[in-house]
Structure formats: C-alpha cells, structure tokens
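### Sample
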Amino acid sequence: MGSATRSAAVVLRDALAQQGGAADLAVAEELFSIARLVGSSLQLRNTIADPTADPAEKAALTERIFGGKVAASTLAILKTAVQQRWSASADLAEGLEEVGVRAIAQNSADAERLGDELFAVSGAVSSDAELELALRSKLAGADAKVGVVDRLLTGKVSAGTVAIVSQLVADPRGRSIRESLRWAQQTIADQRDAVLAVVTTAQPLTAAQLGRLRDVFAARYGKAVALSTVIDASLIGGLRVRVGDDVIDSSIATRLSDVRLQLA
C-alpha cells in the first residue's frame, strides 16, 4: 500500500467517524456495492480516481452519478473518498471496501462477536475443501457464491458477518477467501483499537488463562487484544500465538522438533 493510499484511508476513517450511527449496515452494503462497481468499471475508476482531476469536480460528478440513489451517509463518505489521492486507481475500491467493514464494526452491538464469527467462518472454510472451492471458483459468478454464503450463514451469524463474507466472495480481487477473512478480522480489531491475536493450543484454554493472555499481550502491544483460539492436538501442549507478523511458539511439538534437529 502506497503512502497516498494510507493517508486517504485515514481520512476515510475520520469521515466514517463523523457519520456515527448513521453509517449503519445498509450504508456498509451500499459502500460494498459501489466498491464492486468501481472495481469492475475501468472508465468510472479512472474518472473518479484520477489524481490530476480537480477534487471538487470529482465530488460534483460523484453526486450527479450517485445522488438520490444511495443514503446521504454513503454519498458523504464516497465524495470524501474520490477527493483523496490514491497510490493506484484500484486502491479506491479497496478503500471503500475497508470503510464498509469498519462501518459494520463501528455500529455493531458486539464487534468482538463479529470478529469471532468471521474466525469461525474461516475455520469452516479451512476444514471443507469443497466449500472453499465453491467460494473461490472462477467459474461461478458472484451471485452464485453469495447465494452459497446466504444459505450457509443467514440465521446462524449476525447480518453484519453475512454482509462482509458476501462482499469478500463476490469481489476477491486475487485474494483467497481465508486471506480475505483474516484481513476483515484485522480490520475489525483495528476499528476497536485492538490487535488480533490467533492462539493455537492442544486443548481449550480456561477463561482465566484467556484473561491472562489478554493482559500479557495488552501490556506488550499497548492495546486491547482480540483473541481467536484454534485447537490443534498435534501441538501436544503449550501454545502458538500469531499477532500480525509476530509468532510466539512455545508448543511441545516445536520443542521436540528443535531437540531432534540438535541431535541430528
């Protein structure tokens, strides 16, 4: 991500915060739809993301195209987006997708549960090769893949989770579904001013153990910690923790492997 896109993304987050509760699930879904439209239309993308064009003129054009067709909050965020300079024109669609995910997290009654549900979906995809193939197939259209998501998730998880997963499968942009879900989890954690930690253990941890882990990593990273847990009996004991690019591995399986390497 280029520096211009990073700066634009910060401005969009501020624009979202200004909308407050008005940027609800419906607004997020409109942002997702516009992101897909921008991503699929080279002409539109080059027009409203042109770094040489006057920002006010791009905002006026955006209002002519979308005014009266989307909610006022959606239009306000979109006009802010097109007035920014993006490192690449394709980054505009990605920025709209990100702010849509953040809107859902910002107005969720339980953003932590939202992240947990996405993690559970990721686990289900990882354990079912046929499901993963169905969701990433280039032969199936976006509507067909969204239909699979609706059948699997509607009524079982929050509407926000369904909307996010539907967007990710409809517009993967070269990402695997697992990569997309991990990105969405991290985005939601960041919106909560938290870091995402994935903890893998041989056996389930108690509430007290999870609490101690949160305290340890909160002290280390200076933020609240969103914990997602994975059970993997092959670790034998101990745990493995991934926070961003940091990996802390104190599993017994890894220790035994190290011993074998030393003996060899």
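The radius of gyration is 21 Å. This sample (ATP synthase subunit delta) is used throughout the tutorial notebook.
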